[in-house]
Structure formats: structure tokens, C-alpha cells
Amino acid sequence: MEIRSTTDQDLDVFVDTLHVAFGHFREAPTGGGGLWWSALEMDRGLLAVTPDGRPVGTAAAYSFELTLPGETIVPAAGVSAVGVLPSHRRQGVLSAMMRHQLTELRARGEFLSVLLATEAVIYRRFGYGPATYTQTLTVQRHRAALALPRAPGTATGSVEVMRRSECGGILEDVYDRYRRAQPGALSRPRSWWAVGAGQPPISPAPRYVAVHRDTDGVPDGYASYSLGEHGTLTVDETIATDDAVSTALARFLLGHDLVTRVVLKHCPPDHPLRWQLADFRAGEVGGDTDWLWVRLLDVPRALTARGWFTDGELVLDVEDPFLGEHGRYLLTVRDGKADCVPTDREPDLSLDVSDLGSVYLGGTAPSTLVRAGHIRAHHPDAATLADALFRAERPPHCLHWF
């Protein structure tokens, strides 16, 4: 079997192979665009091919930017479109593609890789760990009253309802401002907006958009939504540059007439809406799941790239079984910056590279993984120190689907 890079001429073969791998059929193209594969970067794709030339596996990567704690923005490879034909599973095809891909990413000088896992049991063995989480909030309209706030912070401005087809530029601009300040957020390349790739509101699927504008008329938030059967208003995503704007958009959505319930998708676990409802139990949490998985390809570069909020030293003993690597590093943090160098000192924590990926953005406490038996703490204070060091200024969250 050969693992080879793809070119633009391989697009149809790549897409057809991937559809077969998942048992799907290709959608018919429409004049409005919106096909997810229209954003594929074919110079970053891989095909697994049998000796007689049959494609049996695919893997792709997108060129994203990832916002780290401290509002540091770095390049990250977004792994996607990974599939193996049912006739060739459990024969080492996936492992071969993943190893080939990680080697290629390193050769490109990349030190972080991210993905969305179709199945949670697959990617940890390749060194990825869940790093951000998301959930759905459902509010019955008759229980949607908001409590009177006890602290200042009410947004001033206005909400305008627009059609998705009217406000693509607004969505692109507001999202870009939001993602630059949100740990765990990915960029949405301009090419995605141009071809309508992905899910709403990037795709041209019919949607209404509640656009919030500040007192100067500048858009600073939006909510993309649709009304379905039985009076359900479903919100694809809410993007706001601050909490006051988020509250104003929530107030608009929950006050929509001819609606029996409001379903807000992709809410961060710390979303304040449940606390803002007069009836705390009116906010029903569902769909609580992992979202962005992170894989470190160069531990020192990754740890020195992000911002830090507590001074301290920590010795990390990191195993990377998939790539057959092992390293022990002294992480020293002073005044928000980190230094990370190899060391022979005794470790404070021993962990798998996938666990390091989980704690990297600050969304998973190292002490949680110690309690779960994933990370070994070599002295009683190690987990507490690691929790303080790896925390972010706010919980990481990722909305982007790829």
C-alpha cells in the first residue's frame, strides 16, 4: 500500500472515496455553493492506494489559525476528511495515514494539529486529546423570562433581522473579531466564506440572522437561526464580542413570537444564560460533548507559544507512543511567558502526549486527569500547581466545523 499526496486532479477521486468510506452519496451541487469539499486544500490531502492503484483511504488538512490562551494566534493544521473503505479497515491503513500525515505536518514546520473526532475512541491513540467542549441549551418559550440583572452591563444598541444572503460580510468580520479573543477558536479562511463551505452560517443555506449593532451602528454580534416544525427556533451559533451583546441577542431570540421553544446549539459549558433565566431549570442542557481535539507535534514550541497567568516551574515527562518518542521538559513560567527545555530533573507529572493536548488550552484541569488515572502526579502539590499554570483567562471554546 502507498500513501501519496493529492493534487487538484485528485479531487473527485478523493471525495468519492471518502463518501464510500462513510456510506454516503454525494449531494448534487447547487448554484449557491455550500459543498463542504469546495474548501479542501488538495496540496494537503493524502490518498491510501493499493498496489493495483485502487484508493482505499483519505485524509486531509486545512490551514487554520488557532487562538491560544493569552490571545496568541498561531497556525494549526485542521485534520479532516479521514476515512477508510469498509473492505480495508483493521488492516493498518488508518495508522499508516496518520503517521504519514504527522510526519508531513512536522516537515512543514507545524507544531499543532487539531481535529473533530467522529468517534471518541479513535484518535487518542494517535496522540490527540479532547480540549474544548460544547453543549446545547433548550428553553421552552413559556419559561424564557430573564431575571432582572443585579449588576451593570446591559448592552446598548439595536438588533436588526437580516437574511443570510444579505450579510455575509458582516458575519465574516464579526466572527474574525470574536475568534481573535476567544481561546480555542479557529479562523474561518476567507475562501470558506467565498465558496459557502461548511455548515450554516458559512454555507448559503437559508437562515435569518439577528445582527446586533452598537450605538455607532457597528455590528458587534450575531445569531444565525431558523424556524422549524412545531414552533422550534434553532440557533446555529451566537457570536458576540462581549457578554452584554450576548445577553441582548439571547433576549431577542427568547422573545421571538410564534415560537414554542428555542434551541441554542454550540454553547460553551460556562454559558451564563441559565443563570440569567428567572427559572434556572428552564435551561435544559443536552448534547454535552467534546469538540476540538488537540495534538502537540513539538512540545517546547507549543508550550512557549501560549500565554500564561501564573508563575512557576513544572517538570513534564511526556510519552508519545504512536511516534515512539519520549521527552522530559522543564517548563518555567515568568511574567506570562514560558521557557521549555529538556531536563534530567525528576518529573512532577508523567503524562501521554494526548493528555497534554487536553490540558493545553486550559479547558481540562490536569488534576481531573490525575484523578482519572491518566496523569501521574509524583508529589501531592504537582496537580495543584499544574492546574494553576495551565488555566486560561477564560474557558476555551470552538464553534467552527470542519
Could you explain how this protein is built, in words?
- The chain is α+β, with helices and mostly antiparallel strands and 402 residues long.
- It folds into three domains: 109 residues, Gcn5-related N-acetyltransferase (GNAT) (Aminopeptidase); 155 residues, Aminopeptidase (3-Layer(aba) Sandwich), CATH 3.40.630.30; 93 residues, SCP2 sterol-binding domain (Nonspecific Lipid-transfer Protein, Chain A), CATH 3.30.1050.10.
- It contains ten helices and 19 strands.
- A seven-stranded mixed beta sheet has the order 1-2-3-4-5-14-6.
- A hairpin with a 4-residue loop joins strand 10 and strand 11.
- The model has no long low-confidence stretch (mean pLDDT 95).
- Belongs to the acetyltransferase Eis family.
- InterPro entries: Acetyltransf_17 (IPR041380), Acetyltransferase_Eis (IPR051554), Acyl_CoA_acyltransferase (IPR016181), Eis_dom (IPR025559), GNAT_dom (IPR000182), NAcTrfase_Eis (IPR022902), SCP2_sterol-bd_dom_sf (IPR036527).
- This is Putative acetyltransferase.
Short description:
Belongs to the acetyltransferase Eis family. The chain is α+β, with helices and mostly antiparallel strands and 402 residues long.
